[in-house]
Amino acid sequence: MREDLLYFIWKHNKLPAKQLCTGNGEAIAIKATGIQNRFAGPDFFNAKVEIGGQLWAGNVEMHLKSSDWYMHHHETDENYDNVILHVVWEDDIAVFRKDGSQIPTLEVQQYVSDQLLSGYQNLLENSRKSFINCEKDLEDLDSFLVENWLHRLYIERLEHKSKLILKLLEASKNDWEAVLFMLLSKNFGSKVNGAYFLEQAQQLDFSIVRKTTNEPLQLEALLFGHFGLLNVDDCSDAYFLQLKNEYQYLVRKFGLMENRSKPEFFGLRPLNFPTIRVSQLVNLYAGGHNIFSTLMDLNKLEGIYQALDVFAGPYWENHYTFGKISKKRTKKLSKKFIDLVIINTILPLKFCYAKYVGKEWNEELIALVSQLGKEDNSIIKNFDKIGSKTQNALESQAKLELYNNYCSKNKCMQCAIGTQLLNRNT
After folding, report:
1. Strand stretches in 2-156, DSSP E
2. pLDDT in tens, 154-196
3. Sign of the torsion angle spanned by Cα atoms 418, 421, 423, 426
4. Which InterPro entries has this protein been placed in (predicted)?
5. Which of 105, 14, 125, 60 has the alpha carbon at shortest distance from 423?
6. Which helix (H) or strand (E) holds 121?
7. Distance CA 374, CA 392 (A)
8. Measuring CA to CA, which of 54, 182, 344, 378 is 20 to 30 A from 281?
């Protein structure tokens, strides 16, 4: 038993209209269930409940046991002073306000139908043997409900990604260009080196990047050195030595702390080697100014693809690492890689920046992400096996949010699909 069942019962009016009463025998009539609160504080705001013939307006708090009120120390929290009703599964103890008055308690277990309880238990029991609890019922759901829920989940995913952006923005004193550079560094580091590249980018004063964008060799030396790619022993390659000498000059000029660590190469395909990705990142910034503003102004995918159409430098046409010649090949950012940059950096930044300047860009973002191809990973593959095929990046992003923050945590009663299924069967 979980508290989310109590939320469902209350929110969806699953209690009988008559015969409800408090633990003290006072009749209860629910006039308005209020607005569910998903943050700190009481579970439902602005409810209206008639208790013993007296109409009360205020908040409703829910627990599995009434004694949880004291376990969570609500008696000392002023946010709970306006609770008019305590809804619990089991009423095991009386609960009092600071002024000594007893808070009316509604024990719901005696009013819940066996059909509803059985449906809830069956849904959660599937978690032991299924990819997701509701996988057998997905194909029977109303497509309009699913589509709207996926759109909402995509916005939720953007909101979750906003947390890192806002953190970086605060640390950079509202320098959006610097935040873009940090996020792009994370993207260009891929899964293996993403966290490492982000950490290094956070430690680099972005004003130095700005000062070197018109000096390609200095920008190359700065980024190759700062991301630890010049920490190579016994390399006599002329290009490598040129970069290393230039980096030593920049260290002295700007008072930089030399990076002694190294990124990973093991397990990566050559085109994802950090040497190739850093060279591509260099060429994205070389000679460029206000890249953030440029990307924020672009409202069509074609323009974004063009802005991110970059190659690794000439040296890397026949190299993957310093000093080792390989078969000649142009190392251009692939469409698939750019799509991931758009999904993971450009669109979340657009979302955050829109809020920052007071604009509503949600529909535009929905339109853009809907044009991108779906992501290819085990979670999306499993969804495709049990329901309609994932069509685009909006659906794949939404399904990742659904699985990671609802399905895998058994939050079925907070999911539009789970509540629809339980409502349909009770």
Report:
1. 28-32, 35-36, 44-51, 54-65, 83-90, 105-107
2. 999 999 999 999 999 999 999 999 999 999 999 999 999 999 9
3. negative
4. DUF2851
5. 14
6. helix 114-125
7. 4
8. 378
Contact criterion met (CB below 8 Å) for 131 and 48: no
Q: Which residue from 38, 54, 42, 43 is spatially nearest to 10, judged by alpha carbons?
A: 43
Q: Is 105 exposed, middle or buried (0-12, 13-18, 19+ CB in 10 A)?
A: buried
Residue range 271-327, pLDDT digits in tens: 999 999 999 999 999 987 789 999 999 999 999 999 999 999 999 999 999 999 999
Tell me the residue type at 142: D
SS3 helix, strand, coil % of the chain, rounded to 5? 55, 10, 35
Q: Residue 114 is encoded by which pair of tokens?
A: 């066996």
Tell me the average pLDDT across 118-147.
84
Which residues touch 117 (CB under 8 Å, ≥6 apart)? none
What gap in Å lies between CA 269 and CA 248, rounded to an integer?
30
Chain-centroid distance of CA 82 in Å reads: 33
SS3 27: strand
DSSP letter for each residue of 214-281: T-HHHHHHHHHHHTTTT--SS---HHHHHHHHHHHHHHHHHTPPPP------TT--GGG-HHHHHHHH
As to burial, measured by CB atoms within 10 angstroms (0-12 exposed, 13-18 middle, 19+ buried), residue 216 is middle
Whose tokens are 């205020």? That residue is 58
Q: Quote the CA–CA distance of 119 and 419 in Å, as a whole number.
A: 11
